[in-house]
Specification:
- The chain has 278 residues and is mostly helical.
- The protein has one domain.
- Helices cover 82% and strands 0% of the residues.
- It is built from eleven helices and no strands.
- The protein is globular.
Length: 278
Amino acid sequence: MMSDEPGEPGSAEQRVRLTRGASYLIMQNFGGSAVAVAAFAVLARLISTKEMGILAILQLVNATCLTFGTWFPTSVTKFVAENFSRGSKDVAAAAFYQALSANLLFCIPVAIGIYVGAPFFAYHLLGDMLYASLFRVFAFDVFFFEGMLPILVAALFGLRMFRETAVVGLVIGGFTRQSLVISLLILLRNLVGLPVGWLISDAVTAVIYLALTTRSLGSPRFDFPLGKLFRFYLPLKLSSIVDYAKTWFDRALLVAFVSLATLGVPSLSEMESRAIPH
């Protein structure tokens, strides 16, 4: 575990630590891709093309929530890193806790809206109100995946805890997530196993990341200027919205004009070629 005593910014020790951190994250990406490929091979045999279409819509909703409902992760990395490296642990802690609380305030109404509006979303997006349970479970996952995890990961990056982030992300967010999803699909014989698996893995990952972060930053403080977080992050938020539009615009059009089974065909091809997990 990283020591609480930071090195001098720009020192040789810091550069070595950053290089090692990058290698851990690269290994996490490679490992996650391998797990995703294996999981896809199993998943493609467990669910139909129509259910692949439903999965594609859930991923679209998830990307929409993440893009418009999550704020400040880059701000957290910046202000935690620069203040913690200077020995200003209290300021770094204030930046983290202020951003986490504000981001949760943004995400909680989104989660409530999805939960309450689950029958509406199920009928208009999936064509059947019987799928409302998918959105109700997904609403709880919004709290963890959009509300907590981006801020926690950003804080851990700022604390230079790359190894811990990569190991937990690979083991819990990669292997355990995919194993849970596949196991629940088999046991429940219902597509609700997808969001339930996401919810469990995201909740466990968030708890572990929160424990690591609070151990380094200490007790909560909320005296960091919220406007400072906004000013740094706003241009990056606009950029993320543009990236979202480029990535998901065609999927949104397909949702409006084609059946779930037809939507599942390009989703199968995309998952096979890119092997991107939830």
